[in-house]
Amino acid sequence: MSSEYTPIDQIVVSLSREINNNETCYTGIAIPSAVVAVQLARMTHAPNLKFFYGGYWINPDLDVDLFTIMTDTEAFRNSISKAQGFSHLIRLYEYWEGPKHTLSFGFIRPAQIDQFGNINNSVIGDPNHPKFRFPGGAAAGDISNACSRVIAYVPRHDARTFVEKVDFITGKGASPEWRKRVGLDNYTGIASIITDLGILDFNSPSGTMRVRSIHEFSTTEEIRENTGFDLEIPPDVPTTEVPTQVELEVLRTKADPLEIRNFDSRNR
What is the pTM of this model? Predict the structure, then answer.
């Protein structure tokens, strides 16, 4: 692995590259790499991105710690005055369901995900007697079905996350047949998954998960060994484009000088 950047740097940069200018996106609060990726994209190639943070802030000030504003009253008040807008979560639901349907994409960090793109952020084990209960799906179900596409990320690619069958469906997957049947065929579900080993998507003939690219510090064997089901790995799968010096400079000095992204870092 190159000493110039870390796996979490690659995740954030790859997430930012999934973002296009003039789009509108939603991120939750407890997904730091996604928040930083939005900041990076707005500072590099997507200056006109409209960013809904946590269902409350519209284009919040990028110079503040976006996690502190949820726990510090004074920071909360300051954030309202610095953001371009402010809305309660219920109003955002109305925005999703309105006639324009203008949320281009949303971010998700799944606790479990299967080969069909179903995600679980609710419980591990029997839902009636779970081994572990997460804080809840929050807006994950809405993001899965109300944004034109979903971008997921997994800080540590392993078989506990990439499972044959999720224990609970918090958000429905990318099945084109199901989406057409329920009238959601214009919304693709999860379009890409960025992990510390590579980038995955569902652009396979069967519509199941496949490897789109492999990071330079990983291998096809490592991805296969750390996935709990058979996924498609094309014989000519490319290497993920590494972060540029410009991207790394902006990431470290402007988008995330506090290194919030490292809250997501997982050692192997």
Answer: 0.86
